[in-house]
Amino acid sequence: MSLIAGVMSESWYVERPGPRVRDSTGSWVPGPPVRTRVDHCAVMSPYGVTVGSSSENHDASETVTTRRVFAGPLGTDVRPSDRIVSLDGSEKWEVVGRPLVFPLTSLARVEAALKEVTG
Fold first, then answer.
1. How far apart are CA 13 and CA 86, in angstroms?
2. How many domains does the chain have?
3. Contact (CB, 8 A) for 93 and 80
4. With contact defined as beta carbons under 8 Å apart, do 71 and 45 qualify?
């Protein structure tokens, strides 16, 4: 098994707002989320380390911000407004910023920074 196949061996959903619809007042709002399954991908710690990948606010709240990286095969459509969701729906990550495309490396992939805020 190659290194890339071993690392990118998971399946996740890319979730984005559906086409706009009108609500009960006639205003345009995002439609129900649309999920697209992506195979051969991974959600991993940035740079392969867990130190520094989460932080806590010390302002009398219980807010924890955790950062990860989504890596998917070339051609994966990931946008700044998307979420990355586990197959069972237990994990949801927000895409932060524009994804990067690495087409000319031995580990060719699409990468997106992720953030999860809890508490």
1. 6
2. 1
3. no
4. no
Range of the domain at 57: 3-18+28-118
Phi, psi dihedrals of residue 47, rounded to the nearest 5°? 60, 20
Q: Is residue 102 part of a domain?
A: yes
**Cβ(56)–Cβ(106) under 8 Å?**
no
Alpha-helix residue ranges (DSSP H) falling in 1-119: 3-7
Strands, DSSP E only, in 1-119?
Answer: 10-22, 28-44, 54-56, 64-72, 83-86, 92-102, 109-118
pLDDT confidence of residue 53: 54
Model-level pTM?
0.82
d(CA 67, CA 47): 11
With a cut of 70, say whether residue 118 has pLDDT above it. Answer: yes
